[in-house]
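Table S2 (continued). Query chain:
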Amino acid sequence: MKNHIVSAFRLTLVMLAVVGIYLLVVYGGSKILPTKGNAEIINYKGQKFYANIGQEFKSEKYFHGRPSSVNYNAAGSGGSNKGPSNEEYLETVQKRIDTIKLQNPEMGNVHVPVELVTASGSGLDPDISEEGALYQAKRIANTRRLSVEQINNLIKNQTEKPFLGLFGPSKVNVLKLNIALDQLK
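Corresponding output:
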């Protein structure tokens, strides 16, 4: 029995060291990110918004982000657990496609970008692709009485390139894009 206790104690010490090193690597890695692993807080019109968490925008004068399976509730982050062959899920996606096409009639039969009709794994993704933003540009231009070129330039200016030019896709933060849109003259 003494041998088992000594072995268990050694294994515990080794695992503590391994987990400790892992935590230091993850923490250190987060500090090289643009936000240094912290939430990005934006104060706008007297309100506090978190740019790292998806926000819901319903008005036609704003860009819409990804749908949320948790109603944009950061306390309840999670996906729907429905796979791409689930009939109920496919009906939900088809309804979203129909809604997007009704909101953006100028786009005709142009392919709807996938992130505009599918929720992310967390249900809180704050970003869409540049293609997703451009898909909505004509609606925004018409609603706000701006030129499509102005909206396209705004989208280009708000597009974040991949981290270090290598990691991840180009993306547009919907909250930041809508705030910049409000500030357009």
